[in-house]
Amino acid sequence: MKKIYLMLTVFSSILIAQNKPIKTVDSVNLQKYVGTWYEIAKIPNTFQDHCIKNTTATYKINEDGDIEVLNQCLDDEGEIDGAEGIARIVDRKTNSKLEVSFVSIFGWNLFWGDYWILGLDQNYNYAVIGTPSRKYGWILSRTKKLNESDLEKCFIIFEENGYDRNKFELDVHDN
């Protein structure tokens, strides 16, 4: 009986966490946020299936306030693959909710995806990125490797927002 009660408690907690709104950070200084980030972990997705290691994201603020995005990785053929896109700020009060697009036809961005900053180290050493659907998630770092303590902090942020840490895979980076 205790096992059933424990299982029901755990299952209920997971459902409650998945149904509550995702919480983003209170404020993002975009000048500190831009630059190059190394992908430390992600929920596997179809648009990164070909990436086998050395995944990075580089951000640069445009004159109009939008953010240029360059995602790169080493693909399964040993080549550097890149995707250029644009990010726009959705919540200008906090700068923690953005949308990104990598599809442009004649200068029009047709498809936008959520990019919400759920966690951010006070010194901008790591960032926790998610989406309201909880389908996508990334841990980014300014360095190729994140120490265990900071990695655990990132996973706790995800879990507090209803994510399952077991869905994530760790990335590989050459030294």
The end-to-end distance, rounded to whole angstroms, is 51 Å
Physical arrangement of strands within the biggest beta sheet = 1-2-3-4-5-8-9-10
The SS-based structural class is: alpha+beta
Number of helices: 3
- Low-pLDDT residue intervals, each spanning 5 or more residues: 2-17
Largest sheet: 8 strands, antiparallel, barrel
Shape annotation? globular
Strand content: 35-45%
Number-wise, the strands total 11
Quote the average pLDDT. 90
Rg over CA atoms, rounded to whole Å, is 17 Å
Helix content bin: 10-25%
The ordered H/E elements are: HHEEEEEEEEEEHE
Q: Can you describe what's shown?
A:
With 175 residues, this protein is α+β, with helices and mostly antiparallel strands. 20% of the residues lie in helices and 38% in strands. It contains 3 helices and 11 strands; from the N terminus they run H-H-E-E-E-E-E-E-E-E-E-E-H-E. Strand 9 (126-130) and strand 10 form a beta hairpin. The longest helix has 18 residues, at 2-19. It is globular. 23% of the residues are buried.
